[in-house]
Amino acid sequence: MTSRRQVHLAAHFPGVNNTTVWTDPRSGSQIDFASFAHLARTAERGRFDFFFLAEGLRLRELKGRIHDLDVLGRPEALTVLSALAAVTDRLGLAGTVNATFNEPYELARRLSTLDHLSDGRAAWNVVTTSDAFTGENFRRGGYLDRADRYERAAEFVRLSRELWDSWKPDAILAYQSEGRFLRQDAIGAVEHRGTHFSIEGRFTLPRSPQGRPVIIQAGDSGEGREFAAAHADVIFTGHGSLEDGKRFYADVKGRLAKYGREPHQLKIMPGVTFALGDTEEEAAENAAAIRRHQVGPQTAIAFLEQVWGRDMSAYDPDGPLPDVGPDLSEGVSQGRVAIKDRGAVAAKWRAMAEEKNLTIRELVIEVTGRQTFIGTPRTVARLIDEHVREEAADGFILVPHLTPGGLDEFVDRVVPLLQERGVFRTDYTGATLREHLELS
């Protein structure tokens, strides 16, 4: 009998964006450690592979105004994860750290420290930026072109791995058995002269229980896909539908052979959301209510302004789209991924609004709908299994709409059904994140 493809699951801390419903009385702090601990412990109770933290290096602005509730704060990821290592036992701990505004030796050391503190559960989500607005918080500013940022990131990852691998696996045993001085060949010297980095020296930490941290990459561009195929262990994508997922899956997995890699060596895990109900109708109602709370009046106008490039604050969010066309002369949003071809997006939005008779807010809800899986727990379990079985994904990174208790219902009601289907672990069989992800 052929074994069923196993589902991999991770939990994303919601953070500051319009996924989170802040008006819900159950919504808590995203700074208090208790919030991080609650979500991480829930994910571990559900036998998830890892807990995932995003990063924000500058508060995002729209025409000089801070929005998106960024004022709630964005703690530094590796500090939070180091604290979580003490209150979890098996759960992987993944942090987003920017490869444009950090240095390899220092970051490799911080990640290796987390890997040792957690007994081999650390992961690094590699992100880049060519955004000069974000770069103003750093010495180098936004000096990197889009293509150059991936070149720097690739060199960064290669050098980090060289540092992590520079200690021989038995170096500590040699030290313990031979006295206070390590053999000269126990720790290799790292000498690197590259386009972006120049290093000569020895790393300060031995290899961790999993060898080195897991590498995650988030992105959908051709450059991002190629970077993931060459360097990543996990790719975090935005493809939630079955057909889009299958196309993305086939494309990225098909790139691995040129780098001497096998398909199982890269896990594809889209970020997804969910809305549950005791019936399909109740789940649909819950999803609609969540979407309406995610897109309040101010958020609806802010989204419109990102596309129109104009001050739209005078317009009623519950009224029709204005007759005025978009100003395409310059962007108005800073600290975000730029919207490509705003004119085409505006035309598409207008056609949709006219066809469905949508208000501004209803339109934004329509185009930013977040619930990927909607239904009873049994329906959602079936859909998740189907996506993995049909090779649209290897698993999913769940982004709940509530901080910190939004994952509880999924763990209590959906995970047991996945286990019942024989596609998700009933207990951890390994100790490290690499073992959870079945990475060789």
From TrEMBL:
Enzyme class: oxidoreductase
E.C. number: 1.14.-.-
Top-level taxon in the UniProt lineage: Bacteria
Classification via CDD domains: Nitrilotriacetate_monoxgenase
Residue ranges constituting the Luciferase-like domain according to the UniProt record: 26-390
Signal sequence coordinates: none
Keywords for the protein's UniProt record, in alphabetical order: Flavoprotein, FMN, Monooxygenase, Oxidoreductase
Gene Ontology molecular functions: monooxygenase activity
PANTHER family tied to this protein: ALKANESULFONATE MONOOXYGENASE-RELATED, C2H2 FINGER DOMAIN TRANSCRIPTION FACTOR (EUROFUNG)-RELATED
Cross-referenced NCBIfam families: FMN_nitrolo (TIGR03860)
Family the UniProt entry places it in: Belongs to the NtaA/SnaA/DszA monooxygenase family.
Record protein name field: NtaA/DmoA family FMN-dependent monooxygenase
Species annotation: Nonomuraea purpurea
